[in-house]
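Weekly structure sync, notes
Attendees: PL (lead), two postdocs, one rotation student
Agenda item 3: pending single-chain targets
PL asked that the sequence for the first pending target be pasted directly into the notes so everyone works from the same version. It is reproduced below exactly as submitted, 209 residues in total.
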Amino acid sequence: MTAPHRALVVIDAQQEYFEGLLPVQHPDRDASIARIDDAIQAAEQAGIPVVLVQHELPAEAPVFAAGSPTWQNHPVVAAHEARASHRVTKQSSSVFAGTDLEQWLRAQGIDTITLVGYMTNNCVLASAAAAEPLGFAVEVLSDATGAIDLANEAGRASAQQVHETLMALLHSNWAAVTDTAGWTAALHAGEALSKSDLPTSAAQGRSAV
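Predicted structure, written out during the meeting:
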């Protein structure tokens, strides 16, 4: 297996998820932002490009309002802004929709994107799925992402349920899922991460019932 050409993509690590209307509930948001910082530092030390993505809506929007305090990156991530390899502003869930990210990645010779940030149940999931038809391999760091509690007319699920279910779903098809320590070790070794597949995950799921 050839060594991957990675970029670390930090998705929406913004104050909206800490002090706004969408506080991350699982994993613990203070722990997850610390792991995001660890991943950025590991990428910088390994010469891996770091892309910072921010969701931005009009100034009158209730969340991610352009220029508002909760639109700002979390201070831990903001400390890396000046050194970021590329910065992206988006209006959709996927980091690719309406942005120049695909073109930038291809210009850098990137074939693998590592996703960290928020939320597992929205932008991380959408970005991983969107990468598939574009031909990018995807990695997701389970302890450097996070989800929220959900309840609506279709049902309800705790943030822990949401996050753990989506990590299993992603690893079954769209992404190699590991934690920050495992990813950092793979960086140092110049190795790709392995992921499962749908037939294997289905077989293991049946045997676990």
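Discussion points:
- Helices lie at 16-19, 29-46, 75-78, 101-107, 120-134, 159-173, 180-189, 198-208.
- The chain has a mean pLDDT of 97.
Action: rotation student to compare against the earlier draft before next sync.
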